[in-house]
Amino acid sequence: MHPTILADLAAKRDSAAVVRRIYPVQHPSNPAPGLPQACLEARLSLAFAEDGGTTRLVGRDHFGPLLVQKPFYPDGRDLCQAVIIHPPAGVVGGDKLDIAVKVGAAAKAQITTPGAAKWYKANGHVSRQNIKLEVGAGGVLEWVPQETIFFDDVNVVLDHQVMLEKNASYIGCEILCFGRTASGESFTKGQIKQHIGIRHDGKLIWFEQLRLSGGSAAMKSPLVLAGNTVCSTLIAVGKAVSPTILDTVRKEAGAIANGAGHLGISQLKPVVVARYQGNSSETARRIMLHIWGLLRPQMLGREAMVPRMWNT
Predict the structure, then answer these.
(1) CB 251 within 8 A of CB 243
(2) Is the distance from CB of 52 to CB of 106 less than 8 angstroms?
(3) C-alpha–C-alpha distance, residues 158 and 202, integer Å
(4) Segment 10-13 long-range contacts (CB within 8 Å, at least 24 positions apart)
(5) For residue 140, what is the enclosing H or E element?
(6) Alpha helix (H) ranges present in 72-143?
(7) How far is it, in rounded angstroms, from Cα 38 to Cα 94?
(8) Would you say which domain of life the source belongs to (predicted)?
């Protein structure tokens, strides 16, 4: 977003703290000498509702540079797509992002992002992201942001909570990249903490947590990263998938991996989990999108469709 737009947003609000860092700024990992490191706090709340066969974005409230500009309907009027935009294009040590999404009964929504999320060097502060997703009875939510890149020496806490009511469906995908390997950087310092919880009809059906220190033995352990720099996960909750379809998913996704990295796909009713570890974010993306495309018709009753943002 152009800096003058952010300045106008700040001027229209009572508090000057609404936008505390106007973009562009000097590279976040190299603040100007003598200047204090500004910490940014941003919040976004979205609400979707079904209205006569159309899913509408009925609630949109933001604080700071975290927003959705307009809803899209690339897959029919019954599914509303929202693209979350973070104008600073990166998260600095001390920043905090809060995202809350409510999908009403029978509504269908898809959330994505226009590019990779970047978590910069901690600079002595902890960065946080809290995501809370709620889906009403019979509703559908696809949470499919693009890659997340952790720079060396980050200190990040991520919390991702999903609450699904009866007959609600959810597909969530994430691709985590540890270090900027394309720039020759490794994840040798810092810490990442992540918590993921999914409740379906009031019952906890999925919980996992990660605590990873840069350069630690866990990065080479076969129980964690096994020496890989990319970890991607797709979690789908909804209709059960037949063993025949799962075998097809394993076979075709395995062909894309072509022996590089590690791929596993399991079904723990009503959850299907696919995880790939390797050293190429592009390969991880292709695998996750292919798996998503195969599961989507089975679990959501919708044809495979890659978000246009992923192709730009």
Answers:
(1) no
(2) no
(3) 22
(4) none
(5) strand 140-144
(6) none
(7) 8
(8) Bacteria
The C-alpha atoms of residue 285 and residue 8 are separated, in whole angstroms, by 37
Residue among 144, 143, 24, 34 nearest 90 (CA): 24
| Alpha carbons 220 and 228: distance in angstroms, whole number | 7
Of 142, 152, 145, 110, whose CA–CA distance to 129 is shortest? 145
What are the φ and ψ backbone dihedral angles of 269, each rounded to 5 degrees?
-45, 130
Q: Which two tokens stand for residue 178?
A: 């540890």
pLDDT tens digits, 2-14:
333 333 333 333 3
Give the start-to-end residue ranges of the domains of the chain. Answer: 3-26+40-311
Provide the whole-model pTM.
Answer: 0.86
CA Rg, the chain, in Å?
20
Tens digits of residue pLDDT in 132-164 = 999 999 999 999 999 999 999 999 999 999 999
CA-closest candidate to residue 195, choices 212, 181, 186, 208? 208
Q: Residue 134: which of 9, 47, 44 has the closest Cα?
A: 47
